[in-house]
Design goal:
This protein is of the alpha/beta class. It has two domains: 46 residues, no CATH class; 223 residues, 3-Layer(aba) Sandwich (Rossmann fold). Helix content is 43%, strand content 20%. It is built from nine helices and eight strands. Helix 1 runs antiparallel to helix 2 and helix 2 crosses helix 3.
Length: 289
């Protein structure tokens, strides 16, 4: 089997493991058979999975920014927290809430928040696992915790970030994978001063929900991501049919999580840059008026 085919099949296996709740032992057996040995499987997995120790694009101590953790209650006794980043010169022109993947508020998502702040916004990297003790260091544990969330309650937690940080400013939201799906839910449910939403490769709601969407939506989709495509494309068509403002960008030949530079095998630098430029231009157009 050609190495590129092994890589593609391995990424598909990993996607099913991380998004469909497959048993880890079964996943490793299948990956070992595919790779040819346990050692080769471990090497392949290390290149596919996100690496928490990967170098950040924007350093934590970047002098152009001010960052810190902020806490509030989304409901009485329900503690929330977020990694909030502002330009060093002062609060951003608008707020952009950043919603994490299915592992929680990881170093990579904090890095994304810093990139948002460098574009001139107040970035709010919300930790939607905060009410359950916060994002754990163990990513498998993080996925397990995400899988147990009550989505209706978690949506209200996400909405509370807009009430807390965008009381008097326009707000946007961007999310990735599980967070991309949450972006779609917020576009349907609405949030305080929410004016623009960008979903990266997030499974979409049922097409029947499209008529309820309250804000302009941009969908960033990976061409090789058939799992997400089977929901995202029908949702996009329903949005168009309902007369809702939607922009769909499909990046051919790239995998799910192509924006995640901490995953060597899935990251695609060209697609990630193009998608990011489009994301910031979308926010600049809709949040600065």
């Amino acid at each position: 089997m050609h190495p590129s085919e092994i890589r593609t099949r391995a990424i598909a296996l990993y996607d099913r493991f991380t998004h469909e709740g497959r048993d880890r032992r079964r996943f490793m057996r299948e990956l070992t058979l595919l790779a040819g040995s346990a050692a080769a499987a471990e090497t392949l997995l290390a290149a596919i999975a996100a690496n928490p120790a990967a170098a950040a694009i924007v350093a934590e101590d970047d002098k152009r920014l001010k960052a810190g953790m902020v806490q509030w209650d989304s409901a009485p006794g329900r503690a929330m927290r977020a990694y909030v980043v502002d330009p060093a010169a002062g609060p951003g022109k608008a707020v952009v809430v950043v919603i994490h993947e299915n592992r929680g508020l990881t170093p990579h998502i904090r890095d994304i928040a810093r990139r948002v702040a460098l574009a001139g916004y107040t970035a709010v990297g919300v930790d939607l696992l905060a009410p359950d003790g916060g994002t754990p260091a163990d990513e498998d544990k993080g996925r397990e915790m995400i899988g147990k969330l009550d989505i209706a309650v978690t949506t209200r937690d996400a909405q509370s970030a807009f009430t807390r940080f965008a009381a008097d400013r326009k707000a946007g939201v961007v999310g990735f994978c599980w967070g991309g799906a949450m972006v779609d839910r917020l576009a349907v449910a609405g949030a305080h001063n929410l004016a623009a939403a960008v979903s990266y490769y997030g499974p979409a709601p049922a097409p029947e929900e499209a008529a309820k969407v309250k804000v302009p939506l941009m969908l960033q989709l990976a061409g090789l991501d058939s799992r997400v495509a089977q929901t995202a494309h029908p949702f996009a068509e329903a949005l168009k049919a309902a007369g809702k403002p939607v922009i769909v960008h499909d990046y051919p030949g790239v995998h799910h999580a192509f924006n995640n530079d901490s995953s060597a095998e899935r990251y695609n630098a060209d697609a990630a840059k193009l998608a990011w430029d489009r994301t910031i231009a979308f926010f600049d157009r809709l949040l600065n008026g």
